[in-house]
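Lab notes, practical 5.
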Amino acid sequence: MFFDQIKEVEQSIKQLQKDLIAIGEGVDGHYDQLDDIAAHVIALEAIMIEVMKKTEIDVDAVKAWIVAATEGSTGQKGGSTKAQIIVENLISGEPAPEKRD
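Output from the prediction step:
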């Protein structure tokens, strides 16, 4: 009986190892996808900055659109402040600020 329990524990550990490997592979795949998305966002920001240098932008209209589009999903009056900060950075031609703790 004791040895049967040890075998069960051993099988559980082996299964846990397989599960952890699968989770690790899944995380790696998600990281690669996030890296691809980040690269696309950076490229789009660069293009938008160049377009905005040549085109007049109504910043207030852009921010109003952000408020209308994000107020419900954020649950905050005024919508996504982060998106509005990004607008300010894009308009000024600066990259997004680094996150500070």
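Observations recorded by the TA: Helices lie at 2-54, 59-74, 81-92. The two ends are 54 Å apart (CA to CA).
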